[in-house]
Give the backbone structure.
Amino acid sequence: MPINNSVYRLLAIQIPTFWEAIKYACIEADEVDKKDYANYFNDLLQALLSDKAQCFVILDKDRILHGIAITKIITDKILLKKELALQVLYSMRPISDAELFRNLKILRDLAIQEGCFAVTFQSRNPRVWEMAKISGCTERNRSFIYEVGGN
């Protein structure tokens, strides 16, 4: 089945048009706790409007939204190298391996263009782990939390 979707990088002035869909994707993909919405979305909106974060949308030929990705270019504090950090990756429907590879190439090309040494991401989603393995990603670390209360 041919891929008829196009990926677009949003300009800062286009963010308000997609803001509700961006918030939905973040809540679903990042599993943002409701009590943290204000801080999370204020920080994200500020980053998107100041071009410190990049937002990509996947639209079909009828301009129907199929996916959202949000990236940030950060510097690894140990290696002192830039990396393209994938903050949010959300698809409104299951994607094929061909679409996965096509979208990964877009992120790879952006990373190269920005002088990054890698594309990085974190996820608790087993399907994302599976897609990472198919894509040739290697696991860098695992993150754990032991809550002790407090604020």
